[in-house]
Every structure is written in C-alpha cells, then in structure tokens.
Amino acid sequence: MFEQKPSHEVEGIVRGAPRQDCVEAEIWGRVPKHFSNIGVCQKASKDSQTIRNKILWSDESKIELCGLNTKRHVWRNPGTIPGTTVKHGGRNIMLWGSFSTVGTGRLVRIMEKMNGAKYREILDENLLQSAQDLRLGQRFTFQQDNDPKHTAKTTQEWLQDKSLNVVE
Q1: Which residue spans within the chain are E strands per DSSP?
Q2: The overall pTM is greater than 0.90
Q3: Comparison of pLDDT for 48 and 87, the residue scoring more
C-alpha cells in the first residue's frame, strides 16, 4: 500500500504542482468538484435568515421574588415534635414579554390572575405595538407556546381577526 503524503511535505513538489508530478511522487488525492448549486444554497440560507428576522416570539413567566418556586422541605431530628416554621416567599410577579432577532419588545407586568381573557387583552394592547417598535412590518409571524390560554378557541379567533400569521 502506498503511504499518502501531503504535497507540501514531499521534496521537489510545490503546492499546486501538476498532477503528473504528484503521481510520480506517489501522492494521491483528488481535486474537489465545483458545486454548481452553491448559489441555490446561499439563497436558501439568506431566505431562512429573512424569515427568522420576521418572527415575534412571546411568553409569560412567574418570577419568585423571595426563595424558589419549588416545594420547601423542613429537616427535623427523629422523634421531635414539629414546631412552628417560618415560611418565606409568596411574593412574585408575573410578566409577559416579546422578542425577535432584532431585539426585545414590550414587557408587561400582570397584576391579576392570567386567563384567556387577560391574555387577549395583553396581546391587544402590546403585540402589534411590539412588532411596530421592532420594525417587523405588517407581515410578521407570531409564535407562542401551547399553553391552554394560547390555544383557546377565543384566542385563536382573535388572532384570525387580526390577520396574524401564527406558527402552529
């Protein structure tokens, strides 16, 4: 079997040497083919980026101000009677926000319980304004997760009434 050597390691062979010199020096390889469809790939990549630049994502989140948003465990010695424990927490805020590849949209503090009606009210007051602030244009795509208030029939009807493109 022949040992394959790069052309720059063989004496007397200059990088880019003619094929016959490489064959005589027992250097085997091939010249990469030129892809005629490279322009198609580049165009598809640019189109994909353009589509991503026109997407507005939104979500809501509860932020715990004191402690963690998880169960709390109390450790006691075996055989002791549980005493009074001090519970911290209970202070939290609920936020709705939107963002795009261009930047962040509006951030809204939600003071009452979040339900479908409150969600539609937030969208009505902030969604189109966020898209306008981010200069996404009239034909942007809206993306949200599958929370029940997002998939509610009344919310879907609201989105259709506004003629919004929504990622399913």
Answers
A1: 55-64, 92-99, 104-110, 141-143, 165-166
A2: no
A3: 48
Distances (CA, A) of 79 to 74, 82, 95: 14, 9, 44
Domain extent for 3: 1-32
CB proximity list for 144: less than 8 A, separation 6 or greater: 57, 58, 59, 150, 166, 167
**In a domain? residue 75:** no
Q: Structural domain tally of the chain?
A: 2
On whether residue 85 sits in a domain, the answer given is no
- Do the beta carbons of residue 66 and residue 88 sit within 8 Å? yes
* Helices 116-133 and 153-161: angle between axes, nearest 10 degrees: 30
Is 147 found in the same domain as 96? yes
Tens-place pLDDT, residues 9-37: 555 555 555 666 656 666 655 555 554 55
In this prediction, residue 91 has a pLDDT band, given cuts at 50, 70 and 90, of confident
Residue 168 within any structural domain of the chain = yes
Bridge partners, 62 (sequence order): 94
56-78 pLDDT per residue, tens: 999 999 887 766 655 566 667 77
Rounded CA gap, 90 and 68, in Å?
Answer: 10
CATH code: domain of residue 59: 3.30.420.10
User: How many angstroms separate the CA atoms of 96 and 62, rounded?
Assistant: 9
